[in-house]
Amino acid sequence: MYQMKMNGHIDHMVASFYIKSGNGFSSSVKFGSYDTAGIAPGTTLEMYKTKGTASWMINARKIALNGLSMIDSGSTRYLNLDM
What we know:
Strand order of the largest sheet: 1-2
Strand content: 35-45%
Order of helices and strands: HEEEE
Radius of gyration: 15 Å
Largest sheet: 2 strands, antiparallel
Helix content: under 10%
Number of helices: 1
Number of domains: 1
């Protein structure tokens, strides 16, 4: 992403993830900014800082997928969004 920013391809070092599940839906990743159209009505944009500049790891205390709890601890764990 640093190279995309330095070469003028993107304005900001930001990646946005739009995730939809179900038949006929698709998910996407946008580099450089975000789209307000991708934010579901009644929700807000959430931003997460990575653990460092060399990885896509974000800290998490609770994670659920489709209502199933994957992580639910009092301590911080790191989730690696491996690209």
